[in-house]
Specification:
Blueprint lengths: L1 H19 L4 H4 L14 E10 L2 E2 L7 E6 L7 E7 L5 E9 L4 E6 L2 E10 L2 E8 L2 E9 L2
Antiparallel strand pairs: 1-2, 1-3, 1-9, 3-4, 4-5, 5-6, 6-7, 7-8, 8-9
Length: 142
């Protein structure tokens, strides 16, 4: 009888250990809340520097831009608000074109498109304006 009790307690202990060590597969398969999450663009960014035709400015920038999700979580569209640091703000929508690494900004009935690259906490926009090649370097704040 004592052996049966010991065997029952041992079996229960082994069962408890195995079930508590079981991998939680539901949490491992959680999808990002928005399709944009996987590109790392969401959040607030601060302008670090601008290079025009290979010459980098030495100005301290206060510009910021914040990207948020759109209504649908399964697309590459969202909303942005940018500030130049002195109170002027622009808001609108953006869309990523990942096949060509292009971001389209739609605001005030106009559209601007830039090549983009995001790695770690650095985002780079490249575009041409008035025959000048411009590269903007943005650092993630939040």
């Amino acid at each position: 009888m004592v052996q049966l009790k010991s065997l029952l307690i041992l079996s229960f202990a082994i069962f408890t250990v195995f079930t508590s060590c079981e991998k939680d597969e539901e949490n491992d398969n959680i999808e990002p809340s928005d399709y944009l999450d996987q590109f790392g663009i969401l959040g607030k960014w601060g302008l670090q520097s601008i290079t025009i035709n290979g010459i980098t400015d030495m100005i301290v920038h206060y510009d910021s831009i914040e990207f948020t999700t759109g209504i649908d979580g399964d697309d590459l569209k969202g909303e942005f608000i940018s500030s130049d640091g002195v109170g002027y703000e622009t808001n609108g929508q953006f869309e990523l074109e990942t096949a060509n690494n292009i971001i389209h900004f739609n605001f005030n009935n106009s559209q601007k498109s830039y090549e983009f690259d995001i790695s770690d906490s650095l985002m780079i926009f490249t575009y041409s304006e008035e025959n000048n090649e411009i590269i903007e370097y943005w650092r993630k704040k939040e």
